[in-house]
């Protein structure tokens, strides 16, 4: 797996990451969602440099210009519900992409820190020979990402896989590397050093789904 840690280089991304982490600013749910969306746009721009292109001629009023145009074989698959603002940011840049959605959540059968990942819903076009982009803002333990991949690959093998995340843990990044194909690319804004006993990223930012759409039962 190739890891692209985008925040290693300073850019306007620094501002958006600072704001989604700030426990005061993130109380503005509309601003939080919009910042996640903008981060998705930045990561999509970086990802676009690794996609396949072909040549097309464009006729202007004065002549013809040959351009390198991105191949339109993308499927964006977001993990519900936290992935929705990120999905929109990616779709803003890849507006010709097909779309897929999958649910994944932590199930605590014993009401303790131990959990398993449940997948209850998946809607997608065929993934066979497509370029698959999996979007999830938080890459904590990596278990959700791996469980989702195991569920969706039954519906056709994509030719390439890209993962887009906003914030991850070192442990989560190392975990998914063991399960995804070697030519997978991970595009992640920032990577934090610690997971706590509950499997949450520290310092992280909290629950991205709750911050976007409100606290769930």
Notes on the protein architecture:
29% of the residues lie in helices and 31% in strands. It is of the alpha/beta class and 217 residues long. It has one domain (2-213): Rossmann fold. Helix 1 packs antiparallel against helix 2 (29-48) and helix 2 (29-48) packs across helix 3. The longest helix has 20 residues, at 29-48. The N and C termini lie far apart (36 Å).
Features:
217 residues, alpha/beta, Rossmann fold, eight-stranded mixed sheet, two-stranded antiparallel sheet, 6 helices, globular
Total domains, how many? Answer: 1
The name CATH uses for the topology is: Rossmann fold
Instruction: Tally the helices.
Output: 6
Strand content: 25-35%
CATH class term? Alpha Beta
Q: How many strand units?
A: 14
| CATH architect. name | 3-Layer(aba) Sandwich
| Sequence of secondary-structure elements | EHHEEEHEEEEEEHEHEEEH
Global geometry: globular
* Fraction of residues in H or I helices: 25-40%
Structural class: alpha/beta
Cα radius of gyration in angstroms: 18 Å
Give a summary of the structure in a few sentences.
The chain has helices at residues 13-21, 29-48, 84-93, 143-152, 170-177, 208-213; strands at residues 2-5, 53-59, 64-70, 74-80, 98-103, 105-107, 116-118, 122-123, 131-135, 138-139, 160-169, 185-192, 194-195, 201-202.
Topology summary:
Layout: E1 2-5, H1 13-21, H2 29-48, E2 53-59, E3 64-70, E4 74-80, H3 84-93, E5 98-103, E6 105-107, E7 116-118, E8 122-123, E9 131-135, E10 138-139, H4 143-152, E11 160-169, H5 170-177, E12 185-192, E13 194-195, E14 201-202, H6 208-213
Parallel strand pairs: 1-12, 4-5, 4-9, 9-11, 10-11, 11-12
Antiparallel strand pairs: 2-3, 5-8, 6-7, 13-14
């Amino acid at each position: 797996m190739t890891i692209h840690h985008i925040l290693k280089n300073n850019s306007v991304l620094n501002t958006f990451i600072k704001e989604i982490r700030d426990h005061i600013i993130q109380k503005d749910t509309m601003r939080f969602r919009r910042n996640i969306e903008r981060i998705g746009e930045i990561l999509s721009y970086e990802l676009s440099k690794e996609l396949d292109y072909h040549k097309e001629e464009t006729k202007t009023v004065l002549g013809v210009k040959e351009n390198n145009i991105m191949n339109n074989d993308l499927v964006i698959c977001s993990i519900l519900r936290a992935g929705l603002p990120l999905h929109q940011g990616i779709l803003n840049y890849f507006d010709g992409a097909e779309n897929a959605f999958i649910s994944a959540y932590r199930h605590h059968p014993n009401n303790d820190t131990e959990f398993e990942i449940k997948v209850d819903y998946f809607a997608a076009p065929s993934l066979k020979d497509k370029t698959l982009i999996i979007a999830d803002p938080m890459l904590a333990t990596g278990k959700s990402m791996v469980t989702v991949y195991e569920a969706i690959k039954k519906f056709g093998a994509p030719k390439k896989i890209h993962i887009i995340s906003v914030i991850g843990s070192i442990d989560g990044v190392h975990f998914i590397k063991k399960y995804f194909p070697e030519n997978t690319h991970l595009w992640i804004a920032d990577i934090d050093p610690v997971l706590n006993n509950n499997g949450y990223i520290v310092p992280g930012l909290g629950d991205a789904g709750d911050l976007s759409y409100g606290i769930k039962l």
